[in-house]
Amino acid sequence: MNKLDNLLTRYIENFIAFIPEVVTSLIILGLGMWVIKFLQKLAQKIFVKNKIDPTFSSFILDVLIWGLRILLFVIIASKLGIQTSSFVAIIGAMSLAIGLSLQGSLSNFAGGVLIILFKPFRIGDVIEAQGETGKVLAIHIFSTQIVNYQNNIIYIPNGVLSNGKIKNITQNNLRRAEILVQTNLIKSTSDFIEQLKVKLDNHDMIISQPKPRILIKELLDTKITYNVQVWVENDNYNTVCSFVLLKAKEITDSL
Fold first, then answer.
1. What is the DSSP letter of 2?
2. Which of helix, strand or coil describes residue 199?
3. Which residues pair with 208 in a beta bridge?
4. Which superkingdom heads the taxonomic lineage of this protein's source (predicted)?
5. 255 residues of the chain, pLDDT tens digit each
6. What is the pTM of this model?
């Protein structure tokens, strides 16, 4: 019984002696997280003030924050009495397993670096990749964040993104819109084309050079499909497409 009492007393004494270390570690954790947030905001202000490319700055900021978090974890572990040298031994022993389990993550990190270096797109560009189309909001360490036309947030892994096909829709300011217009068979196709050309030539959002083109794509017994090609600025793309369809319907009804 005395042995049990002595053992219990020893555990209680060790626990009480360990409480200050736990409290100190919690204080370090709180202060560390506050410092990391402060440095994050400071770095953001510096990047904005010096007009650093947002695509580059957001990625570097992610790397910086994760590095500081890992450093904070090591400091707290050391404060709790865990030998930091043991981390090196553990990492060395588990390097193969970690490498295999994080193979996808490492590929995504490398993909993010390639995107930053070669800049196939920047924050604010509208891209089409991996079956998704949307505006680039941020390039993180492991993924790229975009928002599509339905206002859905989509995260695409950087690995597959950097290795796959990317269509940058807004990299060039001008864009050719191709609108398919289908009408019933009318008496005068030439009148339809001429009237629609007048509408296109007089529209402020349609670029005059290269000139708009109206081609017959398909001719059936009862229907005609036209391919209307016009050059527009990216911001006016959807508006012009709607305009062409509306005017084509009005002209068809009048003939």
1. H
2. helix
3. none
4. Bacteria
5. 556 656 666 666 666 666 777 777 788 888 888 888 888 888 888 777 777 777 677 777 877 887 888 888 877 777 776 665 655 555 555 554 545 445 566 788 888 888 888 888 888 899 999 989 999 998 888 889 999 989 999 999 998 898 889 999 888 888 899 999 888 776 678 888 888 998 998 888 999 888 999 998 888 878 888 999 999 998 888 899 999 999 888 888 887
6. 0.60
